[in-house]
Design brief:
- Among the domains are: 42-101 and 120-180, Macroglobulin (MG2) domain (Immunoglobulin-like, Sandwich); 303-619, 4-Layer Sandwich (Purple Acid Phosphatase, chain A, domain 2).
- It contains twelve helices and 33 strands.
- Strands 22, 23, 24, 25, 26, 27, 29 and 30 form an eight-stranded mixed beta sheet that branches. Strands 21-20-19-31-32-33-28 form a seven-stranded mixed beta sheet, with no helix packed on it. A five-stranded mixed beta sheet has the order 1-9-8-5-6, with no helix packed on it.
- The longest helix is centred in the middle third of the chain and has 14 residues, at 362-375.
- It catalyses: a phosphate monoester + H2O = an alcohol + phosphate.
- Belongs to the metallophosphoesterase superfamily. Purple acid phosphatase family.
- Residues 1-31 form the signal peptide.
């Protein structure tokens, strides 16, 4: 795209991602509109729900048993009939199948207590839902059918048919129970870089605690005959780990057990096969799906290296559920593009706002299932965002409630990162010629803080003659963004964010990439609001000493896109694109880096720039980058 030309919005991407989106939009009643950035499950008033079984209502799901051949997901057909069909009827998937109560006893229990009518309130939210009028025949005949994509989440399932819309739901029929052949099976492996360059962490989820079965990974290098077996550690969390509602209330769901094994002494760039598994007490072995990965390059190794960076994806749904509010309309199309592009990159950095579960914890399983085709093949590194961590009075830098009670617990458990303390989500990651210093913007980063000291060490310890490409990545824009709400604040960044400018300049950080803002924007090499490129017209290439850091906002993974500030562009803003997509970094050697913004819709680069320089250009002094030195020869 041309520099400083704002393209038109690409909000039609969602239709390409989910084939049923247009049909769903027609089916949703006007009263179903919700505010942007509201988790769709939170719009269901389950605390007001009534169990009011209707003998004229019927719902049935098939097949009864899923995953007979070891599959971790399956399509389920739901047929239903309701008297007096209306736009307020909806179908929801619940797990466990008893809805967390003795269904059918609500009316008698309430009557015995002296109340009138059915008891109100269901103790748990559904995993997903769809309005009945998605089925074309429902409004005319009272009968319909729809398909749900169900993943293995360690328990049985049942579907509920509701009337009364989302505000006054009445449970009028319950389906038969369905379940996976082995609900406890190991599922959804996700790779991440370890603390050493030649180490890969493999994390997965199962229903097996350590007293039931021993978790392990079997793995071998391509060409080897016999695999080796590496044991895994096991973690979980409970309601008491969580900080508030809905995460520890109607949104809670047992997370099962999360296992991590560390595959060590990998040979650089060699291909490995692996398979997660559990050995039961009787010697029986239960295995997950096999997969492969390529080991990371040695730090400083001169070879083609490609890394993808983005933020703010969220949960897509191939069956169209939960997307009625357009909560993350681009999540599925970005996921599909990343799957298609797998041969062309080596690692992913998803820099915050991962699942947008917002306290509805079943969606973390849904998210790990969504990214599994990617995360099982390449390292899937994550950062902490406000929707993972922020909750008032829990030691974070912000006092809001964006995580809706999660306070970082699910994200820090479901995903391994090579941090000293996973409760403090900052860490260093080496990938060949790249050094990534990943910040945690939900904790204090200012001078004097623990995180500031870490970032100083991370930047300073990069050997720039072998790792020339130094990248800072974090969720909230601490540098530069002309997003509408930052402009309204007058900060054009997270307030106090630019406290790190001295570090970026001192250590000649090449690139800073952020999420949080749901659009794409990049700057010139900038320091203290000033372009350091000498006013050059060509913003697509930079050579020699950079003089400043290029800041890129890429919160474009799937959450609903946002506008830029009105009026003239700030002089440091050189490219904008309100489209779903991701940033791709390609280092072809120690002197050449290409940065592209790839559209999820077509896989093409719609903005790009190149950096070309030698080691002496990294060493050269620029404004505020060098300490005072002696004039002696």
């Amino acid at each position: 795209m041309a520099a400083r030309v704002q393209p038109s919005s690409s909000l039609l991407v969602a239709a390409a991602a989910v084939a049923v989106a247009a049909l769903m939009a027609m089916a949703v009643a006007a009263a179903d509109s919700t505010t942007d950035n509201i988790q769709p499950l939170s719009t269901l008033r389950m605390q007001a729900a009534q169990v009011a079984m209707d003998s004229g209502a019927v719902i049935h799901a098939s097949p009864d048993v899923l995953g007979k051949n070891g599959e971790d997901s399956a399509w389920v057909t739901v047929n239903f009939t309701a008297p007096a069909p209306s736009a307020g009827h909806w179908v929801a998937l619940f797990s466990p199948a008893d809805f967390g109560l003795s269904v059918g006893a609500g009316a008698s229990t309430n009557a015995a207590a002296g109340g009138e009518g059915p008891a109100a309130g269901l103790p748990t939210a559904p995993i997903k839902y769809m309005f009945a009028n998605i089925s074309p025949s429902f409004m005319s005949s009272g009968s319909g059918n729809m398909s749900f994509l169900v993943i293995n989440q360690r328990s049985d399932y049942a579907f509920g048919l509701f009337s009364g819309g989302k505000d006054n739901p009445k449970l009028i029929a319950i389906s038969n129970k369905i379940s996976f052949a082995n609900p406890k099976a190991p599922v959804f492996p996700r790779l991440s870089l370890g603390k050493e360059w030649n180490e890969m962490a493999v994390t997965w989820t199962s229903g097996y605690n350590i007293d039931e079965a021993y978790p392990f990974v079997e793995w071998k290098m391509k060409g080897e005959e016999s695999p080796k077996r590496t044991p895994a550690g096991t973690l979980t969390y409970t309601r008491r780990h969580l900080c508030g509602k809905p995460a520890n209330a109607e949104g809670y769901r047992d997370p099962g057990f999360i296992h991590t094994a560390f595959l060590k002494d990998l040979w650089p760039n060699r291909e490995y096969s692996y398979q997660i598994g559990h050995e039961l007490a009787d010697g029986t072995v239960v295995r997950g799906k096999p997969s492969t990965f390529r080991a990371p390059p040695f730090p400083g190794q001169d070879s083609l290296q490609r890394v993808v960076v983005f933020g703010d994806m969220g949960l897509g749904q191939r069956d169209g559920t939960n997307e009625l509010a357009g909560f993350q309309p681009g999540a599925q199309v970005t996921t599909d593009r990343l799957i298609q592009d797998l041969p062309n990159y080596d690692a992913v950095f998803h820099i915050g706002d991962l699942s947008y579960a917002n306290g509805f914890l079943a969606q973390w399983d849904q998210f790990t299932a969504q990214i599994e085709p990617i995360a099982s093949r390449v390292p899937y590194m994550v950062a902490s965002g406000n929707h993972e961590r922020t909750y008032h009075d829990t030691g974070g830098f912000y006092t809001g409630n964006d995580s809706r009670g999660e306070c970082g617990v699910p994200a820090e458990t479901y995903f391994y990162v090579p941090a000293e303390n996973r409760g403090k989500f900052w860490y260093a990651a080496d990938h060949g010629m790249f050094r990534f210093c990943v910040g945690d913007t939900e904790h204090d980063w200012r001078p004097g803080s623990e995180q500031h000291a870490f970032l100083e060490r991370c930047f300073a310890s990069a050997d720039r003659k072998h790792q020339p490409w130094l990248v800072f990545a974090a969720h909230r824009p601490l540098g530069y963004s002309s997003n509408d709400y930052y402009a309204a604040e007058g900060s054009f960044a997270e307030p106090m964010g630019r406290a790190l400018q001295g570090l970026w300049q001192k250590h000649r950080v090449d690139l800073a990439v952020y999420g949080h803002v749901h659009n794409y924007e990049r700057t010139c090499p900038v320091y203290e609001n000033t372009c350091m490129d000498g006013g050059k017209d060509d913003k697509g290439s930079y050579s020699g000493t950079m003089g400043g850091t290029v800041h890129v906002v890429a919160g474009t993974g799937g959450a609903k896109l946002r506008d830029y500030s009105a009026g003239p562009w700030p002089q440091w803003s050189v490219a904008r694109d309100k489209s779903f997509g991701y940033v791709k970094l390609t280092a072809s050697d120690h002197s050449s880096l290409r940065v592209e913004f790839i559209h999820s819709a077509d896989g093409a680069a719609h903005d790009a720039f190149n950096i070309s320089r030698d080691y002496k250009d990294v060493l050269a002094c620029t404004v505020d980058s060098c300490a005072p030195h002696s004039m002696a020869s």
